[in-house]
Model the fold of this input.
Amino acid sequence: MVKMISIHSSRGGTGKSLISSNIAAIMASKGRNVALLDFDFRAPSLLTIFQAKGNVRKWLNDYLDGKAKLEEVMVDLTDKYGTSGNLHLGFANPDMEAMREIARKDRKWQMRALRRVMAMKQELSAKLGVDLIIADTSPGVQYSSVNAVVSADISVIVSSLDLLDIEGAERIVQDLYDPFEKEIYMLVNKAKPHMFVSESKKALIEEVKSHFTQPLVAIIPCYCDILLAPRVSLFVLDNPEHPFTWALNEVAKRLASFVD
Done:
């Protein structure tokens, strides 16, 4: 049965899209048939990361609008990245007018979009053999992120230890996740590297636990080379021996155990 994981955050800049795209690549490399969907309709970034504009016939926006079929939207990048499992992408339209249009959609449209997302899960399984869907959501409590979260089997909230991120994550848990009783996990990203040494690591874990009561899937240090790297490739495939890659491999293993 197909499973869906949403990757969410309270605001931009936490590394959510970086984590979503690389987790999808890891999962596909391990033999899973993965569909990565860009639900960040107000600031889509996956098209840039995967450099796939020439492959796109229709956008995920078009599918939710009822103007495109699934096979017109999904882009198969399996051969490009040489993964043992299939890797399919559904991209959000990055044009400014498309972003403005999605922001103008009313609640009735969003409810219809939710039904189409639910139907899309089954279509991806039946037509493309997808067994895992990863949704890179819009930050905060936008309709598109709500639809992704409601449709998902589990959700991962990515947060740094910046106070704005912490308070924002606490708010979306209260406003979105608690009312829908969704299964959620926390992933702390960009933690201070020096806190991973001896006694400091214990203090770091205690600090995280003091802010979040939800299960913790990982604490990942801030790596300067990742911050400076161009976001036009999949870091884990280009740098298999990097500590960030090791950390995300462990995250992927844990997420797989949660949905299997």
